[in-house]
C-alpha cells in the first residue's frame, strides 16, 4: 500500500487524474484531460502508468478505480 501511495504522490499529474476520477466518477480519457487541465497525450500516459499499477482500469473507453485504487485514494485523502 505504501508503495502505491508513494507512486501516486510522487507525481502531481497522477494525483490530479486520481482526484478527477474520485470527484467526477468514471470518465473517458478526454474528460479526465479536460477536468485535470492536462493535455490528452499526458493524460493518456498517466492513465496507462496508473493502470499499470492496478489502481484504475478501462472498460468501454471509461476509466474507473479498481478495488485497490479505491483503497489508495481513501488513504491519499486522509493524508491530504
How does this structure look, described?
- There is one protein chain.
- The chain is of the alpha+beta class and 80 residues long.
- It has a single domain (2-79), classed as Orthogonal Bundle (Arc Repressor Mutant, subunit A), CATH 1.10.10.
- It is built from five helices and three strands.
- The chain has helices at residues 2-9, 12-24, 29-36, 40-52, 67-79; strands at 27-28, 56-59, 62-65.
- It has a three-stranded antiparallel β-sheet with strand order 1-3-2.
- It is globular, with a radius of gyration of 11 Å.
- It starts with a helix and ends with a helix.
SSE layout and pairings?
Layout: H1 2-9, H2 12-24, E1 27-28, H3 29-36, H4 40-52, E2 56-59, E3 62-65, H5 67-79
Antiparallel strand pairs: 1-3, 2-3
Helix pairs in contact: 2-3, 3-4
Brief rundown of the structure:
This is Putative transcriptional regulator. This protein has 80 residues and is an alpha+beta fold. It has helices spanning 2-9, 12-24, 29-36, 40-52, 67-79; strands spanning 27-28, 56-59, 62-65.
- Write down the overall geometry: globular
Classified in CATH, the superfamily is Winged helix-like DNA-binding domain superfamily/Winged helix DNA-binding domain
How do the strands line up in the largest sheet?
1-3-2
Overall mean confidence score, pLDDT: 97
What value does the Rg take, in angstroms?
11 Å
How many independent structural domains?
1
Low-confidence stretches: none
Give the helix level as a range of percent. Answer: 55-70%
The tally of strands reads 3
Largest sheet: 3 strands, antiparallel
Number of helices: 5
Protein name: Putative transcriptional regulator
Amino acid at each position: 500500500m505504501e508503495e502505491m501511495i508513494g507512486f501516486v504522490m510522487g507525481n502531481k499529474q497522477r494525483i490530479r487524474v486520481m482526484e478527477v476520477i474520485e470527484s467526477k466518477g468514471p470518465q473517458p480519457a478526454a474528460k479526465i484531460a479536460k477536468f485535470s487541465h492536462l493535455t490528452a497525450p499526458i493524460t493518456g500516459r498517466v492513465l496507462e502508468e496508473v493502470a499499470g499499477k492496478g489502481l484504475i482500469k478501462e472498460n468501454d473507453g471509461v476509466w474507473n478505480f479498481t478495488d485497490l485504487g479505491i483503497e489508495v485514494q481513501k488513504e491519499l485523502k486522509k493524508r491530504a
